[in-house]
Q: What sequence folds into this?
């Protein structure tokens, strides 16, 4: 079996537009046209373009299309590559009002005051972290990871290669905030959720944040079907919340006696909405043989 391709877990803007092919002239135009809010708009365009090219690149690599792979790699280089994308992601994250870590901290306080403790603190794995988001919260002991870390307190490692260091074996919370929507392969998204279930303790929680378009404008995913998918993994949705642009989901892993086997879970692609303006975001689960 071939070696798994490593994924950079960063924050894209998920488009609801129909699938399209990025052309060199489109990239050049997007970099040249000034706008009223030029810096913010340029960052948004860079993130969106990088995400779309990366998705097409993954498909070309699966199909063995060397010419298309070369063309798309050149386009990525043309917009500044991963370095420019990461700078745009960091600036966009720090300037947005949608601070998902603050929402989680506030929600944990309101849901269960008994969990807000300092001895021992809650353990949390922050996947795809751009910053040490939970550093100032004394009742949370967080490990932050990202494949291409730009922060000294965020460990540079692939999520699938990460192994908790003793004495931590599993976490109270695994946070996947604006991570799943960047992964280009829907099966890999499902594999991330399976791995998250393996890293969280029984009755622990998994925190998921997605762009609203992923569940409100997808052909293949709705809030109901996402809840069904999580249930197949042994997860019960404790709370969900909609902000103007994001959907927040906090799910609890069932006790061992009720725990579903994540490796055996299956969730297939099924058209749930029709229309030419729908996006193709979905999450698939495949049972391990």
A:
């Amino acid at each position: 079996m071939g070696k798994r391709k490593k994924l950079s877990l960063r924050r894209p803007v998920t488009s609801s537009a129909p699938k399209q092919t990025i052309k060199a002239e489109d990239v050049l135009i997007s970099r040249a046209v000034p706008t009223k809010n030029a810096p913010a708009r340029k960052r948004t365009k860079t993130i969106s373009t990088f995400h779309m090219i990366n998705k097409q690149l993954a498909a070309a690599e699966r199909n063995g299309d060397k010419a298309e792979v070369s063309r798309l790699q050149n386009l990525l280089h043309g917009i500044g590559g991963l370095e420019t994308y990461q700078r745009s992601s960091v600036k966009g994250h720090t300037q947005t009002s949608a601070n998902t870590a603050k929402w989680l901290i506030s929600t944990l306080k309101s849901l269960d005051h008994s969990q807000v403790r300092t001895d021992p603190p809650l353990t949390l794995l922050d996947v795809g972290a751009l910053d040490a988001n939970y550093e100032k919260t004394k009742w949370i002991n967080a490990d932050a990871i990202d494949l291409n870390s730009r922060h000294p307190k965020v460990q540079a490692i692939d999520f699938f290669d990460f192994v908790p260091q003793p004495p931590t074996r599993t976490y109270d919370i695994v946070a996947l905030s604006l991570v799943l929507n960047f992964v280009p392969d829907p099966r890999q998204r499902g594999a991330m959720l399976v791995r998250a279930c393996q890293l969280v303790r029984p009755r622990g929680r998994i925190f998921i944040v997605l762009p609203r378009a992923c569940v409100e404008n997808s052909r293949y995913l709705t809030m109901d079907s996402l809840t069904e998918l999580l249930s197949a993994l042994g997860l019960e949705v404790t709370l969900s919340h909609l902000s103007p642009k994001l959907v927040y989901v906090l799910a609890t892993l069932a006790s061992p006696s009720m725990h579903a086997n994540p490796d055996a879970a299956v969730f297939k692609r099924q058209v749930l909405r029709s229309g030419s303006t729908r996006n193709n975001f979905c999450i698939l689960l495949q049972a391990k043989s």
